[in-house]
Amino acid sequence: MVESLDLSYRNLTEFPDNLPNSLKVLYLRCNKITEIPNNLSNSLTYLDLDYNQITEIPNNLPNSLKVLYLYSNQITEIPPNCLPELQSLKELDISSNQINEIPNLSVLQSLKKIHINGNKIIEIPNNLPNSLEELYLYSNQITEIPSNLPNSLKILSIAGNRITEIPNLPDSLTYLSIHNNRITEISNGLPNSLKELNIWNNPISFINLDLLKNHPLKDQLNKIKLVEKVKFIKAAKKINFKN
Questions:
Q1: What does the pLDDT look like over 189-222, one tens digit per residue?
Q2: Per-residue 3-state assignment (H helix, E strand, C coil) for 190-236
Q3: In 94-181, alpha helices (H)
Q4: DSSP class per residue in 48-83
Q5: How many other β-carbons are positioned within 10 Å of the β-carbon of residue 61?
Q6: What's the sign of the alpha-carbon dihedral 176, 179, 182, 187?
Q7: Distances (CA, A) of 183 to 100, 163, 199
Q8: Please, what's the largest Cα pairwise distance for the chain?
Q9: How are strands ordered across the β-sheet holding 134-136?
Q10: Rounded CA gap, 78 and 241, in Å?
Q11: Beta-ladder partners of 47
């Protein structure tokens, strides 16, 4: 009984016929596939279609899917109609496509990790699923981080956007990557849960030292040369201020 099949790097232009119904894991990365068929088995839990030529996500993906990789295709949108079927989905990677809007993802109640890097996103929606733990949105056109991110969120990677300020963030957050943005000051207290902060290549002129006076890296932070003089914030164990 075949449960895993790797057909990557085969120059395939379409899904192979007669895939076994027992199949759980299917690798089809680095082919020339343009379309996902509507007859995939409900036993499938892992589908890797990175580096193909797919233009759209169909509405009838198997509800058994837990992992879906669509990195570097030609997708322009995430159709809202395709989402209710994906109640088991835990991880979605749709980076390096041409998407400009994130739909309401709250229906994906099992989703823990989503990658939407390298698209044309301008806004993070307010209705992210409460199960979400990792959100990757670097290299988009986002100008603002919403203040109501899910309390489950542990990792937020949002470097290379157009963000000008950091709002109050969830107390669950342990990693924040926000380098290469347009932040000029940090005046809110970062969550005490934060263990790593990457904030280099921002025009920062002020960080509130009163909120960081007990920080283990405070001596190093005082030596950082930014636009004027750096002050910092309470909590993070590792802070990266590369210039």
A1: 677 778 888 888 989 888 776 766 654 445 544 5
A2: CCCCCCEEECCCCCCCEECCCECCCCCCHHHHCCCCCCCCCCCECCC
A3: none
A4: E--SS------S---TT--EEE--SS------GGGS
A5: 19
A6: positive
A7: 23, 6, 9
A8: 66
A9: 4-6, 25-27, 46-48, 67-69, 91-93, 113-115, 134-136, 155-157, 175-177, 196-198, 238-240
A10: 35
A11: 26, 68
Other Cβ atoms within 10 Å of 22 Cβ, number: 12
Tell me how far CA of residue 157 lies from CA of 68, 111, 213, 223, in angstroms: 20, 17, 26, 26
Block residue for tokens 């380098």: 179
Which residues in 110-147 are b (16+ Cβ under 10 Å) and which e? Answer: ebbbbbbbbbebeebeeebbeebbbbbbbbbebeebee
Residue 143 has which token pair?
A: 């100008």
pLDDT tens string 115-169: 999 999 999 998 899 999 999 999 999 999 999 999 999 999 999 999 999 998 9
Render pLDDT for 29-50 as a digit per residue (tens, 0 to 9). Answer: 999 999 999 889 999 999 999 9
